[in-house]
Amino acid sequence: MREEIVLSAKPRTETGSSAVNRLRKAGFLPGVIYGQGGTPKNVNLDSASFAAMQRHHTSENLMISLQLEGDTTHKVLVREVQHHPLSGAPIHVDLYELSMTERVTVSIPVELVGEPVGVTRDGGILEQLLRDVEIDCLPDDILETIELDVSGLGVGDSLSVEDLPLDAEKYEVLTAKDIAVAAVSAARVDDSESAEEGEAGAQPEVVGEEESKEE
Fold this sequence. Notes:
By secondary structure, the chain is of the alpha+beta class.
Protein backbone atom coordinates (compact mmCIF):
# COMPACT_ATOMS: atom_id res chain seq x y z
CA MET A 1 0.00 0.00 0.00
CA ARG A 2 1.20 3.49 -0.85
CA GLU A 3 2.59 5.42 2.11
CA GLU A 4 0.56 8.57 2.73
CA ILE A 5 2.71 11.69 2.80
CA VAL A 6 1.23 14.47 4.92
CA LEU A 7 2.58 18.01 5.01
CA SER A 8 1.22 21.21 6.52
CA ALA A 9 1.12 24.55 4.75
CA LYS A 10 -0.04 28.11 5.36
CA PRO A 11 -1.65 30.53 2.92
CA ARG A 12 0.86 33.08 1.61
CA THR A 13 -0.06 36.69 0.95
CA GLU A 14 3.48 38.04 0.50
CA THR A 15 4.71 38.30 -3.07
CA GLY A 16 7.81 39.72 -4.70
CA SER A 17 11.41 38.62 -4.46
CA SER A 18 12.30 40.53 -1.27
CA ALA A 19 9.27 39.20 0.63
CA VAL A 20 9.90 35.65 -0.59
CA ASN A 21 13.57 35.85 0.43
CA ARG A 22 12.53 36.87 3.94
CA LEU A 23 10.23 33.86 4.12
CA ARG A 24 13.04 31.53 3.03
CA LYS A 25 15.35 32.93 5.70
CA ALA A 26 12.59 32.29 8.24
CA GLY A 27 12.51 28.59 7.26
CA PHE A 28 9.61 28.58 4.82
CA LEU A 29 9.44 27.16 1.30
CA PRO A 30 7.24 29.23 -1.03
CA GLY A 31 4.92 27.27 -3.29
CA VAL A 32 1.90 27.49 -5.56
CA ILE A 33 -1.09 25.14 -5.79
CA TYR A 34 -2.74 25.14 -9.20
CA GLY A 35 -5.06 22.92 -11.20
CA GLN A 36 -8.71 21.84 -11.19
CA GLY A 37 -9.70 25.08 -12.93
CA GLY A 38 -9.45 27.14 -9.75
CA THR A 39 -7.39 30.21 -8.90
CA PRO A 40 -3.78 29.33 -8.00
CA LYS A 41 -3.11 29.44 -4.26
CA ASN A 42 0.16 30.83 -2.89
CA VAL A 43 1.35 28.81 0.11
CA ASN A 44 4.26 28.42 2.51
CA LEU A 45 5.58 25.00 3.49
CA ASP A 46 8.10 24.14 6.16
CA SER A 47 11.46 23.91 4.37
CA ALA A 48 12.94 21.27 6.69
CA SER A 49 9.87 19.00 6.42
CA PHE A 50 9.84 19.24 2.63
CA ALA A 51 13.58 18.52 2.37
CA ALA A 52 13.22 15.50 4.68
CA MET A 53 10.39 14.18 2.49
CA GLN A 54 12.57 14.50 -0.60
CA ARG A 55 15.40 12.57 1.05
CA HIS A 56 13.08 9.63 1.76
CA HIS A 57 11.31 9.65 -1.61
CA THR A 58 13.48 9.87 -4.71
CA SER A 59 10.60 9.99 -7.19
CA GLU A 60 9.53 13.33 -8.61
CA ASN A 61 5.89 12.12 -8.71
CA LEU A 62 5.03 12.50 -5.06
CA MET A 63 1.39 12.70 -4.07
CA ILE A 64 0.93 14.68 -0.87
CA SER A 65 -1.98 15.27 1.48
CA LEU A 66 -1.42 18.98 2.03
CA GLN A 67 -3.15 20.29 5.13
CA LEU A 68 -3.68 23.96 4.39
CA GLU A 69 -4.27 26.08 7.49
CA GLY A 70 -7.84 27.39 7.60
CA ASP A 71 -8.80 25.26 4.60
CA THR A 72 -9.46 21.65 3.68
CA THR A 73 -6.82 19.02 2.91
CA HIS A 74 -5.68 19.10 -0.70
CA LYS A 75 -4.40 16.08 -2.60
CA VAL A 76 -1.53 17.49 -4.64
CA LEU A 77 1.20 16.19 -6.91
CA VAL A 78 4.69 17.68 -6.79
CA ARG A 79 5.16 18.97 -10.34
CA GLU A 80 8.34 21.03 -10.19
CA VAL A 81 10.90 21.90 -7.54
CA GLN A 82 13.36 24.75 -8.05
CA HIS A 83 16.69 24.39 -6.26
CA HIS A 84 19.36 26.88 -5.23
CA PRO A 85 22.18 26.74 -7.82
CA LEU A 86 24.91 26.45 -5.17
CA SER A 87 23.44 24.74 -2.11
CA GLY A 88 20.91 22.57 -3.97
CA ALA A 89 18.26 23.39 -1.36
CA PRO A 90 14.65 23.68 -2.60
CA ILE A 91 13.59 27.32 -3.01
CA HIS A 92 10.18 26.99 -4.69
CA VAL A 93 7.68 24.22 -5.44
CA ASP A 94 4.79 23.91 -7.87
CA LEU A 95 1.95 21.67 -6.67
CA TYR A 96 -0.84 20.33 -8.87
CA GLU A 97 -4.21 19.70 -7.19
CA LEU A 98 -5.65 16.32 -8.09
CA SER A 99 -9.11 14.92 -8.54
CA MET A 100 -8.95 11.33 -7.30
CA THR A 101 -11.44 10.25 -9.97
CA GLU A 102 -9.62 11.82 -12.94
CA ARG A 103 -6.63 10.27 -14.67
CA VAL A 104 -3.34 12.12 -14.77
CA THR A 105 -0.24 11.85 -16.99
CA VAL A 106 3.05 11.37 -15.15
CA SER A 107 6.61 10.37 -15.95
CA ILE A 108 7.77 7.37 -13.87
CA PRO A 109 11.45 6.41 -13.44
CA VAL A 110 12.47 2.85 -14.33
CA GLU A 111 14.67 0.97 -11.85
CA LEU A 112 16.61 -2.07 -13.07
CA VAL A 113 16.76 -4.95 -10.57
CA GLY A 114 18.75 -8.19 -10.65
CA GLU A 115 22.11 -9.13 -12.16
CA PRO A 116 21.99 -10.26 -15.81
CA VAL A 117 23.52 -13.66 -16.57
CA GLY A 118 25.22 -12.00 -19.52
CA VAL A 119 27.16 -9.89 -17.03
CA THR A 120 27.88 -12.36 -14.24
CA ARG A 121 28.60 -15.35 -16.51
CA ASP A 122 29.81 -13.87 -19.79
CA GLY A 123 31.41 -10.59 -18.74
CA GLY A 124 28.97 -8.38 -20.65
CA ILE A 125 27.94 -4.82 -19.82
CA LEU A 126 24.44 -3.82 -18.67
CA GLU A 127 23.21 -0.58 -20.24
CA GLN A 128 20.08 1.34 -19.22
CA LEU A 129 18.84 3.01 -22.39
CA LEU A 130 15.65 4.61 -21.04
CA ARG A 131 15.38 6.22 -17.61
CA ASP A 132 11.65 6.92 -17.39
CA VAL A 133 8.35 6.28 -19.16
CA GLU A 134 5.21 8.36 -19.48
CA ILE A 135 1.99 6.77 -18.28
CA ASP A 136 -1.63 7.74 -17.73
CA CYS A 137 -3.41 6.52 -14.60
CA LEU A 138 -5.55 7.46 -11.62
CA PRO A 139 -3.77 9.35 -8.81
CA ASP A 140 -4.02 6.43 -6.37
CA ASP A 141 -2.14 4.22 -8.85
CA ILE A 142 0.87 6.51 -9.34
CA LEU A 143 4.10 4.61 -8.77
CA GLU A 144 7.34 6.05 -7.38
CA THR A 145 9.36 3.72 -9.64
CA ILE A 146 8.77 0.85 -12.04
CA GLU A 147 11.04 -2.13 -11.32
CA LEU A 148 12.26 -4.13 -14.31
CA ASP A 149 13.93 -7.50 -13.68
CA VAL A 150 16.97 -7.86 -15.95
CA SER A 151 18.42 -11.04 -14.43
CA GLY A 152 17.48 -13.17 -17.47
CA LEU A 153 19.32 -11.03 -20.01
CA GLY A 154 22.23 -12.60 -21.87
CA VAL A 155 24.76 -10.87 -24.09
CA GLY A 156 22.87 -9.35 -27.02
CA ASP A 157 19.49 -9.46 -25.24
CA SER A 158 17.33 -6.44 -24.45
CA LEU A 159 14.04 -5.45 -22.82
CA SER A 160 11.73 -2.75 -24.16
CA VAL A 161 8.87 -0.64 -22.83
CA GLU A 162 6.34 -3.36 -23.62
CA ASP A 163 8.19 -5.65 -21.14
CA LEU A 164 7.53 -3.37 -18.16
CA PRO A 165 5.40 -5.14 -15.53
CA LEU A 166 2.38 -2.82 -15.61
CA ASP A 167 -1.28 -3.73 -15.23
CA ALA A 168 -2.91 -2.75 -18.54
CA GLU A 169 -6.24 -2.17 -16.75
CA LYS A 170 -4.69 0.53 -14.55
CA TYR A 171 -1.97 2.02 -16.72
CA GLU A 172 -1.92 3.36 -20.24
CA VAL A 173 1.69 3.56 -21.40
CA LEU A 174 2.22 6.61 -23.59
CA THR A 175 5.88 5.96 -24.39
CA ALA A 176 6.38 3.93 -27.58
CA LYS A 177 6.37 0.24 -26.65
CA ASP A 178 9.25 -0.73 -28.94
CA ILE A 179 11.78 1.60 -27.31
CA ALA A 180 14.56 -0.38 -25.60
CA VAL A 181 14.88 0.12 -21.85
CA ALA A 182 17.86 -2.12 -21.01
CA ALA A 183 20.35 -4.26 -22.91
CA VAL A 184 23.45 -6.35 -22.28
CA SER A 185 26.29 -5.80 -24.72
CA ALA A 186 29.60 -7.61 -25.13
CA ALA A 187 32.54 -6.19 -23.22
CA ARG A 188 34.42 -3.64 -25.27
CA VAL A 189 38.08 -4.19 -26.15
CA ASP A 190 40.31 -1.17 -25.65
CA ASP A 191 41.77 -0.22 -29.07
CA SER A 192 45.05 0.90 -27.50
CA GLU A 193 45.47 -2.45 -25.74
CA SER A 194 44.77 -4.31 -29.00
CA ALA A 195 47.34 -2.20 -30.82
CA GLU A 196 49.95 -2.85 -28.13
CA GLU A 197 49.31 -6.59 -28.27
CA GLY A 198 49.68 -6.52 -32.07
CA GLU A 199 52.92 -4.63 -31.86
CA ALA A 200 54.28 -7.02 -29.23
CA GLY A 201 53.57 -10.03 -31.47
CA ALA A 202 55.14 -8.56 -34.61
CA GLN A 203 58.75 -9.27 -35.57
CA PRO A 204 60.95 -6.18 -35.27
CA GLU A 205 62.68 -4.94 -38.39
CA VAL A 206 66.47 -5.03 -38.14
CA VAL A 207 67.73 -2.18 -40.27
CA GLY A 208 71.36 -3.24 -40.13
CA GLU A 209 70.65 -6.69 -41.56
CA GLU A 210 68.72 -5.25 -44.52
CA GLU A 211 71.54 -2.88 -45.33
CA SER A 212 74.12 -5.72 -45.19
CA LYS A 213 72.07 -7.82 -47.63
CA GLU A 214 71.79 -4.95 -50.08
CA GLU A 215 75.57 -4.41 -49.95
